[in-house]
Amino acid sequence: MTNLLAFLGFGSDTAIDLAALVLRLSLGGLFLAHAGLKYFVFTPAGAAGFFRSLGLPGWFAYATIAAETVGGVLLILGVQTSLVALGLIPVILGAAIFAHFKNGFWFDRQGGGWEYPVFWAIALFALSLIGGGAFAITA
């Protein structure tokens, strides 16, 4: 089996570059989707009200929308991937702690549990370790 995986390119530099690309595109796309949800569905003012209901300042919503938008675009393009991925970890952990922790672990609960945002943070950390790969604009 090991020989077959090696023959198919698994573990090669090309496979690692493709893995980085897949992670960058999916994580960046998720951040853009969540920013779009706050902007187009909940509206920035509605998101600010939700943040206030969690005990956070309303302006955190605007900062979060900006971080998700800019961070998502930078991940997709592969600009300073490791730093951007690390910088987005507090954003998603903030969601886990303030919005989802009280709902328990499983994300299928009303309001979502914390399993999904914590896994998202782990994926960001993994991306920060491997970097943007050969298909990124910068390392």
UniProtKB/TrEMBL annotation:
Subcellular location per the Swiss-Prot or TrEMBL entry: Cell membrane
Tell whether Membrane is among the UniProt keywords: yes
- State the GO CC annotations: plasma membrane
Task: Please tell me whether the keyword Ribonucleoprotein is annotated for this protein.
Answer: no
Alphabetical list of InterPro entries matching this protein: DoxX, DoxX-like_oxidoreductase
Membrane-spanning parts: 74-98, 118-137
Q: What is this protein called?
A: Predicted membrane protein
Regarding the membrane, this protein is recorded as:
Multi-pass membrane protein
Q: Which organism is it from?
A: Salipiger bermudensis (strain DSM 26914 / JCM 13377 / KCTC 12554 / HTCC2601) (Pelagibaca bermudensis)
* Primary localization: membrane
| Keywords of this entry | Cell membrane, Membrane, Transmembrane, Transmembrane helix
Pfam families linked to this entry: DoxX
Which family does the record assign? Answer: Belongs to the DoxX family.
PANTHER family, alphabetically?
A: INNER MEMBRANE PROTEIN YPHA-RELATED (PTHR33452:SF1), OXIDOREDUCTASE CATD-RELATED (PTHR33452)
